[in-house]
From TrEMBL:
Species whose genome carries this gene: Geobacillus kaustophilus GBlys
Pfam families: DegS, HATPase_c, HisKA_3
PROSITE patterns: HIS_KIN
Major localisation: cytoplasm
Name under which the protein is recorded: Signal transduction histidine-protein kinase/phosphatase DegS
Keyword flag Nucleotide-binding: yes
Reactions the enzyme catalyzes: ATP + protein L-histidine = ADP + protein N-phospho-L-histidine
Length: 393
């Protein structure tokens, strides 16, 4: 019986190894498709920028030719109406000039039309590639969860069969949480520094063209914009690093950490004023609550800066007998809360954090009138003593 059991264990291990190899191969293939799509996306993005420039040039050239063609037609009309005072040579030259300009204008209009069609086609292909890239990233993340599960819980499955259900649920929750956090960071890096750096690369390619076509002053203006984009990318990278976990939150608590974060954010964003008011007793809250409230304020402030383009942000936190109340108000461009936006991961994440704390989230906004985020989280005062003892240990 022992030999049969040992053989069964080895056979199961070999099956698991084959499963892992197959899943890993599938992951590599999906990753390769995603990378190829990214490369094609970047290539088409550069081509789209060039096509847009050529379209603008074609429109300007057509406008100039249209003006000249109208002048040539007026000249031809004048010559034709005053046939007795103009020679046949004058009439022929006027006709040929009008005809030549008309032909040039027709060719330029046709080129403009083709450029517009190419631009629209490129935009459609870019949208399709973006969907492929997003789907590939999602599948790679899901397969990574499976691989982690196979590598951790399914190896030596014969010896670990007892209690497998509990380990499976616990392991999957941890892995899914890790993968979700990685996806969040990946989205932030893709939407922030990666996009900025891609634009920096495109703008750097344009500097040389600008010097040749429009001169030194225009090139200097491009370089200034180039420098602003690099500074913005650096700021995004620093923000993401800080987002990973502010150490002061564990050492000092929520209020001092928020003060420091808002002060630092104000320094990085020139021309933006951020105020912070704390009302009530400054107490230590459960660690998970402090982390969640910090993330909620952080997400609200970043939304105000990045999407609302706010210049003034007021953060207010009040501790009452039974609740923690937080409001984040900005003077940005606002939005319509009734209109659902695709890929609104930030607001979805905020609502999930508040729900985990048993609280409520209310967002009031109007286009052109700023946004106010209200957060209400219940407090359990009976846990204050326990929290203090846990922090001492």
């Amino acid at each position: 019986m022992a030999e049969a059991k040992q053989w069964d264990v080895k056979q199961l291990d070999r099956i698991v190894e084959k499963m892992i190899d197959t899943v890993q191969h599938s992951k590599d293939e999906i990753f390769r498709i995603g990378e190829q799509s990214r490369q094609e996306h970047d290539h088409l993005l550069r081509e789209l920028e060039e096509v847009k420039q050529l379209t603008v040039q074609a429109i300007e050239e057509a406008d100039q030719l249209e003006m000249k063609a109208r002048q040539a037609r007026r000249r031809l009309s004048e010559v034709s109406q005053n046939f007795s005072t103009h020679s046949e040579q004058d009439i022929r030259e006027a006709y040929e000039a009008a005809h030549e300009l008309h032909m040039k204008l027709t060719m330029v209009r046709e080129r403009e039309k083709q450029l517009r069609l190419r631009r629209d086609e490129l935009e459609r292909r870019l949208a399709s590639l973006a969907q492929i890239i997003e789907r590939a990233d999602y599948l790679v993340g899901q397969i990574t969860v499976v691989l982690h599960y196979l590598n951790s819980d399914f190896r030596q499955v014969g010896e670990l069969i007892e209690g497998a259900k509990q380990k499976q649920e616990f392991g999957l929750k941890i892995i899914e949480a890790q993968e979700e956090e990685r996806r969040r960071l990946s989205r932030e890096i893709h939407d922030g520094p990666a996009q900025l750096l891609a634009h920096v690369l495109l703008r750097s390619d344009l500097v040389e063209k600008v010097i040749k076509e429009r001169g030194t002053e225009a090139a200097i203006a491009e370089i200034r914009d180039f420098r602003k984009m690099v500074r913005s990318a650096l700021s995004e990278v620093r923000r993401i690093i800080y987002d990973l976990r502010p150490m002061a939150l564990d050492d000092l608590g929520l209020v001092p950490t928020l003060k420091k974060y808002l002060q630092t954010t104000e320094e990085y964003n020139k021309g933006v004023h951020i105020s912070f008011v704390h009302i009530g007793e400054e107490i230590r809250l459960p660690s998970r609550m402090e982390a969640a409230v910090f993330r909620l304020v952080q997400e609200s402030v970043q939304n105000a800066l990045k999407h609302a383009e706010a210049r003034h942000i007021d953060v207010k936190m009040e501790v009452t007998c039974h609740h923690l109340l937080v409001s984040v108000k900005d003077d940005g461009k606002g939005f319509d809360p009734l209109v659902k936006k695709e890929n609104a991961f930030g607001l979805i994440g905020m609502r999930e954090r508040v729900e985990l704390l048993g609280g409520t989230l209310d967002i009031r906004s109007k286009i052109g009138s700023g946004t106010t985020v209200f957060i209400r989280v219940p407090l359990d005062r009976s846990t204050d003593k326990t929290n203090k003892e846990e922090r001492k240990r």
